[in-house]
Design brief:
The complex is a heterodimer of chains A (181) and B (167). Helices cover 29% and strands 25% of the residues of chain A. Chain A contains four helices and eight strands; from the N terminus they run αβαβββαβαβββ. A seven-stranded mixed β-sheet of chain B has the order 1-7-6-2-3-4-5. The chains are: A alpha/beta (181), B alpha/beta (167).
C-alpha cells in the first residue's frame, strides 16, 4: 500500500509559560526592597586639628605653605596664602546676595597652580554659617570641576611627576579647637 | 427539547481558565530594574535619624565603620542614643561644661569609653550625620569634644547631590 505523504503542520504561535519567571520576580522584589537605599549616603573625610600631629607634620615639611579660607557671616570668603613669612590676602565678595563659589574656585585653582605640592586647606567658618554651605565649600575646594584640568606635582620621595584633578582634598577645621582660633 | 436541556445544557462553562500574567511580568521587570539601580552596595548601614536632612555633596565615597554621631534640629545622638537636646539649633547650657562652654561632657564620656573598648574606634573614626541647617557654632562644640575624646578623623555623612537634585 502506498503510503500517503502528509505534511505535519506545526503551530507557529505558542504560549510562553511565564509563571516560573513571575515566581522568581516575586521572591526577588521583597529582597531588593529591603536592601535598597533610596537616599544614597556618602562621606567627606576631614581631620580635626591635633596639636601634636600638626606640629609633627609642620616639622616634616621642608617648604611650608598654608592655604586658609575664612567664611564670614556677610557671605564673603577671605583666602590667605602663607609662604616664607609672606602673606597673600584676598577677599571673594558675594554675588547676587549669595556666596560666590565660582570666584572662590577660580582663586583656589590659581593658588594650586602656584603651589601644586600643597593639598591641605584650613577652613574656618563663622559660627552662624549653616552646615550645607560648609559642605559646599568643601566640594569646591576638593577637586577640579573640569576633569581635563589636571595639576602637575612632583612626588618628593621618588622625584617623579604626576598629574591629579585634586585641589585641596585634606580639609581641616582650624578654628574647631576654641572660639578664638 | 425539554425546558431543562434548553436552559442548562448549552451554558456549560469550563471550571479552569488561563490567567494572562504577561502584563504583571512586565510590571515586575520594571520594578526589578528600578530596585537593582537603588541597591545599596555599601557594607556600612547608617540608620537615619528622624527629621534629619543631611547636606548634599558631590562626594561619592562609601561610609566606613566608626562612632556614629547624629545632630538633628532637636537633639544630639551617639549611636542612636539621645544625649543632649537642642533649642533653636543651639545646645542647652545644662548640657555644656560650666568652665568650658565648648565642651559637651556626656558626649566625651561615652565617646572616650567607646574609644577604649572598640577596635574600629581606636582608629579614631567618627561618622558625623548632621542636619544641613545646623550652624557651625553647634558643630564646633561636637568637633571640639570629639577631638578631646581621641577622634581626630571625622567623616561627614552627606547625601549624594544626584539623589537630592543638587539641593
Amino acid at each position: 500500500m502506498r503510503r500517503r505523504f502528509t505534511v505535519k503542520h506545526m503551530p507557529h504561535e505558542f504560549d510562553l509559560d511565564l509563571a516560573p519567571l513571575l515566581a522568581v520576580m516575586v521572591k526577588l522584589v521583597p529582597v531588593l526592597l529591603v536592601s535598597s537605599a533610596f537616599v544614597q549616603l556618602a562621606v567627606i573625610e576631614t581631620e580635626l586639628p591635633q596639636v601634636v600631629k600638626a606640629a609633627a607634620a609642620q616639622a616634616q615639611t621642608l617648604n611650608p605653605v598654608s592655604v586658609s579660607v575664612h567664611m564670614n557671616a556677610n557671605k564673603t570668603f577671605e583666602v590667605d596664602t602663607n609662604h616664607d613669612q609672606k602673606n597673600d590676602h584676598d577677599v571673594v565678595v558675594m554675588k547676587d546676595n549669595t556666596w560666590d563659589y565660582n570666584a572662590l574656585y577660580n582663586k583656589l585653582v590659581s593658588i594650586k597652580k602656584t603651589y601644586p605640592q600643597v593639598f591641605k586647606l584650613d577652613l574656618s567658618p563663622n559660627g552662624k554659617i549653616p552646615y550645607q554651605e560648609i559642605v559646599h565649600v568643601m566640594d569646591v575646594a576638593r577637586a577640579s570641576k573640569n576633569i581635563q584640568e589636571q595639576f602637575e606635582f612632583t612626588d618628593p620621595k621618588t622625584n617623579k611627576k604626576y598629574t591629579t584633578p585634586l585641589l585641596f582634598p585634606e580639609i581641616t577645621f582650624i578654628n574647631s579647637l576654641g572660639s578664638n582660633i | 427539547m425539554s425546558y431543562r436541556r434548553k436552559f442548562f445544557g448549552k451554558n456549560k462553562k469550563p471550571t479552569t481558565f488561563a490567567l494572562n500574567i504577561t502584563s504583571m511580568t512586565d510590571m515586575f521587570t520594571i520594578m526589578l530594574v528600578f530596585l537593582l539601580q537603588t541597591y545599596s552596595t555599601s557594607n556600612v548601614e547608617i540608620k537615619p535619624v528622624e527629621k534629619l536632612m543631611p547636606p548634599s555633596s558631590e562626594s561619592d565615597k562609601n561610609p566606613i565603620e566608626g562612632l556614629e554621631i547624629s545632630i538633628s534640629k532637636e537633639a544630639l545622638y551617639i549611636s542612636g542614643q539621645k544625649i543632649a537636646l537642642l533649642k533653636d539649633l543651639q545646645f542647652n547650657d545644662a548640657d555644656l561644661d560650666k568652665n568650658d562652654p565648648q565642651f559637651i561632657p556626656k558626649l566625651f564620656e561615652i565617646a572616650h569609653k567607646r574609644e577604649q573598648i572598640k577596635d574600629f574606634d581606636k582608629k579614631g573614626f567618627a561618622l558625623l550625620q548632621a542636619d544641613r541647617e545646623v550652624p557651625y557654632e553647634t558643630l564646633k562644640k561636637v568637633f571640639y569634644t570629639l577631638s578631646m575624646a581621641g577622634y581626630p578623623q571625622l567623616k561627614l555623612v552627606t547625601a549624594l547631590a544626584a539623589n537630592t537634585g543638587g539641593k
